[in-house]
Write a structure and sequence with these properties.
- This protein is mainly α.
- The protein has 2 helices and no strands.
- Helix 1 (6-31) runs antiparallel to helix 2 (35-56).
- The longest helix is centred in the first third of the chain and has 26 residues, at 6-31.
- It is elongated, with a radius of gyration of 14 Å.
- The model has no long low-confidence stretch (mean pLDDT 93).
Length: 57
């Protein structure tokens, strides 16, 4: 079993928090028909994916 360093866990926690916030914003924006919330949520999800891809490479 491999142990994860503190920075690995911090990045993972950041990505998960950003993705959860983005998903919540997308859901809320779609529910109340607010395109600006939907847009912010999509950008948060994109940022989470980019951070994950850059950090893992």
């Amino acid at each position: 079993m491999t142990t994860r360093s503190h920075s690995d866990r911090a990045i993972r926690r950041t990505v998960l928090a950003l993705a959860a916030a983005g998903l919540a914003l997308v859901t809320t924006g779609a529910a109340i028909d607010a395109l600006w919330l939907l847009g912010i949520g999509v950008w948060a999800l994109i940022a989470a994916m980019v951070i994950e891809l850059v950090y893992r490479s």
